[in-house]
Design a protein that fits this description.
Blueprint (H helix, E strand, L loop, with lengths): L7 H12 L3 H9 L8 H23 L6 H9 L1 H17 L2 H15 L4 H21 L1 H26 L21 H12 L19 H31 L1 H5 L4 H9 L4 H33 L17 H20 L2 H34 L3 H22 L3 H22 L10
Length: 436
Amino acid sequence: MRKKGLGFLALVSIVIGSQIGSGAFVLPSVLAPFKTIGLLGWGVSVSGAIALALIFAELASHLPKNGGPHVYVGEAFGKTASFFTAWIYWIISWSSSSVLLVTAVNYLKAITGTLTTFECISIELMILFVVTYINVIGVKFSGIIETILTVLKVIPLIVLPVIFFFFFEPSYFNFSMKDVAGNTDLLSVISKTALLTFWGFIGVECATTPAESVRNPSKTIPRAIVLGTSCVALIYVINTVSVIGVTGFDVLTNTCAPYAIAMGKIFPKYSDIAISIMAIIVCIGTLNAWTLTSSQIAYGAVSDGLFPKIFARTNKSDAPVFSLWISAFGMIPFIVLSEINCMQHGIDRLIDLLVSIFIFVYLVCCISYMKMIKRWYPDKNKRIKMILLSQFAVLFCIFTLYQDLLASFVVLCIFLVLGFPVFWKHRKNIKFSNCE
């Protein structure tokens, strides 16, 4: 039996580390076109993230198995649904990492100056394949580097807002729909910004994956995941507001490196370069973490009999080589997609679509949870409480999706279609009976 060594503080660290990434460095610019009204999206996304965190905590406590969303969907709807959930989750785990590369190169421009589209794509591909190669030849070394980078990326996000608030200009904040780009209605703005800001909480479910190693998971996981997600929300909100307070919305609308602009305004000499280096380190560190995570998702799907064994083929370092390289090459179209569009609009659109696919996965997990509530909670009061929680989470997912539902659904269908050949070839090994 596996020794359960993870306690409360360790799990809180996992929650925070899995969520903080490029979102902190890109969201101030992404939200700039919506002016002050856009900040309302934070309230919606924070409440939705906490609701989803609680649901994943409950799922993990009742199904303390390593693996992720496909485990929960499989328990409710069988192995076929489990396969396609694992497939979609695997694809978005590495395709979403393209935003990290784009953000890193955007901050690099503060050091090098203007770069052509070809140069940006070339640098992004170089970083991608170097990080992938590191994971191929030394998973243990990659893990050590990741631990160091996690500490380094959290400290500046606590210190910088303190500096920014000394130069804060309240006049930049004015609640008026007239200034919002596109002159859309309030509900649409909140839905759109909730979708964008939820990018910062992608990975909220990652803390449930080591459930088998957690001491007293039924109590430890819910408490740790709520506290950790609340800390992440506080860090994101304070950083976004402080950066906007220094630069203003108009300046941020025309940049993909908001922190470099903010520090350059306060300390004109070299500070923007320091911020850029910090942001690049954070993005590469998070890319390294998701590169490792995506390969483990595929590896876990093989262990559950969902993916062909080739996805679990390892080298001498026990690294799933095929999964790592297929993820790297699969990321290329997403990198090109974000660069061929006009500056900020490219990354905005990419975030929209990728977050939407993540939310589709979360929605399916919430529905799976609702199906099992009656079986898991004999106490009526507890059952009603969990039903209300799951209904709120489902409504949150639907609310954030409805603004871009058609485009997101098309992308989801494309991902599903890509999985059909794998499913069809592997269908004899996938049991069609329910996993219960």
